[in-house]
Amino acid sequence: ITAEQLTQDTLAKIKELEPKLNAMITVIDDAKPAENLDFSNELAGIPIAVKDNIITNNVKTTAASHILYNYVPVYDATVVSKLKAAKMTIIGKTNMDEFAMGSSSENSYFGAPKNPWDLTKVTGGSSGGSAAAVAGGEVIAALGTDTGGSIRQPAAFNGIFGIKPTYGRVSRWGLIAFGSSLDQIGVMTKRVQDSAKILNVLSGADDHDATVSEREVPDFTKALNQDVKGLRVAVPEEYFGEGISEKVKALIKEQIKVLEDHGAIINKVSLPHTKYVIPDYYIIASSEASSNLQRFDGIRYGYRSKDAKNLLDVYVKSRSEGFGDEVKRRIMLGSFALSAGSYDRFFRQAAKVRTLICRDFEKIFEENDVIVGPTTPTPAFGLNSKTKDPLEMYANDILTIAANLAGVPAASVPAGLVDGMPVGLQIMAKRFDEESIFRVADFIERSN
Ligand code: GLN
């Protein structure tokens, strides 16, 4: 098959599936493979989708918000430049929760994507479109972003592999910022090995983003096809506590048993501050979001209210009409937590609790290589079943958020089915040790 043919076949497949899945906000109908393809690079000519909060030159980038519904950037995010340098073909921009705020992708201005396993269920979020595009068979890989679980939770809900690298592994230049101390770009694929190859391409220092580490990037594919003998695996009791479905727990315990049967050393541990991760995250992430979203003023880009009479009106009306309910909720929460009267009681407290959560992880990683547990408390839930109650929606993130607060790499690999729907095994490792994650994930994939 030629790269041209593969591109055309992929576009045809997307066209066939989109009315059902709604996984993409923009399909790049005139996508063409890069010129002078050199097939010693295995990624050359392979189509990939990119989440719509990642800037793409000349291709509309909306972050699934009304306020950016017509925004066409004039440059590429670093990750997009890197995919293009590897001669991958960008084929579309995926659906998501508005500004990546949500756990079901139902906060999209463009309507929710649907779970290919059961079209009445959510895809998870916020990278729900990326997950559905991969799981549904439109593409073999997509970029996602993860601030509190937005790669891992939809990966789990759609039965695919998703990895959020270490904070500082991959450049965020050109990512529409949500929570800058938490956001990471990562990869969502059907196969673990494809993820390792793509993360090789994305990783590493960038003159445009000072938060990226200068440290050398290992070849992640070297971690594939290894055994797990002697690997020290921590299992936190809190990840098997109240609120986690019994069937999910049972399935995850089976996977842990597989690791043990193959020589891994299983250690029971505790992450004692787990009960604080949700309130802690929602204060920190909303505070950062309220600051990051100030730039959407109706003037620089995107939507501008038609009936504004003066400058203040332009700001107020454009933002009131341009942002959805969840985004407004976070802006209000964050502005409140940062305001002079509440900063000490909320933001400063949250920052301190974050340090305690980081220490929980440091302690465990003194004696363990990875931490494993479920990715989510339940498999994918029904569309519209949690939209009325934001707190119930937030509770979904209880198992994924801590990795973002601590900046450690974390992934979700398919672990089997509960009631016909996929469940994910979460794997976390020390900062900059994505290799241990790939080692375990690839092993689990081969043993299932
Ligand atoms: N569900 C979480 C939130 O709504 C995480 C989102 C994300 O990781 N982008 O903030």
UniProtKB/TrEMBL annotation:
<dbReference type="GO" id="GO:0006412">
    <property type="term" value="P:translation"/>
</dbReference>
<comment type="subunit">
    <text>Heterotrimer of A, B and C subunits.</text>
</comment>
<keyword id="KW-0547">Nucleotide-binding</keyword>
<dbReference type="InterPro" id="IPR036928">
    <property type="entry name" value="AS_sf"/>
</dbReference>
<keyword id="KW-0175">Coiled coil</keyword>
<keyword id="KW-0648">Protein biosynthesis</keyword>
<dbReference type="Pfam" id="PF01425">
    <property type="entry name" value="Amidase"/>
</dbReference>
<feature type="active site" description="Charge relay system">
    <location>
        <position position="51"/>
    </location>
</feature>
<keyword id="KW-0067">ATP-binding</keyword>
<dbReference type="InterPro" id="IPR020556">
    <property type="entry name" value="Amidase_CS"/>
</dbReference>
<keyword id="KW-0808">Transferase</keyword>
<dbReference type="InterPro" id="IPR004412">
    <property type="entry name" value="GatA"/>
</dbReference>
<comment type="similarity">
    <text>Belongs to the amidase family. GatA subfamily.</text>
</comment>
<dbReference type="GO" id="GO:0030956">
    <property type="term" value="C:glutamyl-tRNA(Gln) amidotransferase complex"/>
</dbReference>
<keyword id="KW-0436">Ligase</keyword>
<comment type="function">
    <text>Allows the formation of correctly charged Gln-tRNA(Gln) through the transamidation of misacylated Glu-tRNA(Gln) in organisms which lack glutaminyl-tRNA synthetase. The reaction takes place in the presence of glutamine and ATP through an activated gamma-phospho-Glu-tRNA(Gln).</text>
</comment>
<protein>
    <recommendedName>
        <fullName>Glutamyl-tRNA(Gln) amidotransferase subunit A</fullName>
        <ecNumber>6.3.5.7</ecNumber>
    </recommendedName>
</protein>
<feature type="domain" description="Amidase">
    <location>
        <begin position="6"/>
        <end position="437"/>
    </location>
</feature>
<dbReference type="GO" id="GO:0016740">
    <property type="term" value="F:transferase activity"/>
</dbReference>
<feature type="active site" description="Acyl-ester intermediate">
    <location>
        <position position="150"/>
    </location>
</feature>
<dbReference type="GO" id="GO:0050567">
    <property type="term" value="F:glutaminyl-tRNA synthase (glutamine-hydrolyzing) activity"/>
</dbReference>
<dbReference type="InterPro" id="IPR023631">
    <property type="entry name" value="Amidase_dom"/>
</dbReference>
<dbReference type="GO" id="GO:0005524">
    <property type="term" value="F:ATP binding"/>
</dbReference>
<dbReference type="InterPro" id="IPR000120">
    <property type="entry name" value="Amidase"/>
</dbReference>
<feature type="active site" description="Charge relay system">
    <location>
        <position position="126"/>
    </location>
</feature>
